[in-house]
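Dear support,

I submitted the protein below through the web form. The confirmation email said the job was done, but the results page showed an empty box. After a refresh the structure appeared. I'm attaching both so you can tell me whether what I see now is the final result or a partial one.
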Amino acid sequence: MLSAMKLHNYFRSSASFRVRIALELKGLAYDYVPVQIAKGEHRQASFAALSADGLVPLLEVEGETLSQSMAIIEYLDEMHPAPALLPADALGRARVRALAQSIACEIHPLNNLRVLKYLVRDLHVGDEEKNRWYRHWCREGLEAFERQLARLPASTYCYGDTPMLADCCLVPQIFNAERFEVGFDGLPRTMAAYQACMALPAFQKAQPSACPDSQP
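What the results page shows now:
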């Protein structure tokens, strides 16, 4: 019998949220293991023994550990091909990966929790300046994302008529952007894809407020 997967994650982590969405879209059962990043639990010895980089999400599967949300999602897609999170054709896969990486590699690294904490703790940036930093880089990235979508055929989701890897990245980014009061005006394709995703049970089940470790 296959052992249950364990997902070590934090309810508010965008990267963790991506993986939860992928697991829900594929209907895969997993054990939810909370790691309270805000309390420093990712630095404790028990987690360090599992995670080389001390980051979430971390997936335990069949005696192995996998890190980095994008790698985890592609692993899940290869091991459980339906429903597919990447198109069947090479060009389509490149398009979807480019959209996903625009968020995961361009927007998110500038705005994740450890960067924001460094701005405040080490560079002595005030809260309002920190929030302005977040809003600037997030908005600039979302505008670039919108321009990419505008060059693609009309679709219900980011690419095509089923949610894919790009949607797994977009939804968590919008959730976090809402917390920092980023403006979404002038992003019609982006917000239409987001709203289409949030109408689906998989995205609703994966959202932070549905997590067992969720906090106000």
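Response: this is the final, complete result; the empty box was a page-load delay. The domain at 5-83+204-210 is CATH 3.40.30.10 (Glutaredoxin).
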